[in-house]
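Hello Y.,

Per our agreement to keep a running log of every chain we model this quarter, I'm adding this entry. I've kept the format consistent with earlier entries: sequence first, then predicted structure.
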Amino acid sequence: MSYIGEFIKNNILCIFFVGLGLLAWFVTIGARIESKKSGRYVSGVPGVGGILIIIGFLFSPVKWLALIGLLDFDMWYFFVKVVPDIIRAERDERNYIPPEEFDDGKVIEYSQFNKEFEEIIIEREAPYAHSLHSICRYIIIRKEGKYVLLKNEHNIKVIERIECDTLEECEKHASKKVKWNSK
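Predicted structure for the entry above:
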């Protein structure tokens, strides 16, 4: 068998992953160029090319070539910009305290953040579409002598309002898992 055939036989995983990585890299570069030409966003597969190239060269006997995968700018952008932004947004969401007045009413109680309180399907008009919303926080306000339970997706997007006569009635309409904080 020839030297090239032997190399291919021993490094098939390396060739496969590096080939896929190069393809993903070129697709991402092409998408950027197309986005600039057309003026609209065209998605590539950012960061995937670099990761696949690193994995591929880690299967080869010349492992230091995995450093080539670090040339993928999108991978660095992901770890330096995107991940810290996600962590910061999660922290801000968890530590959120509503203002004294919210949705034209005085805040009485609000719940701690929880991604899994409940999901609500909102039906819309024709063409009869619907959307699924995750309720992550409840806020009870006092407005015009009544209590109003606000079901919020994340911190500020109010999905549903339920008017009640008493505070306890509002609390009954919320999830059983709620931990309330008083204002």
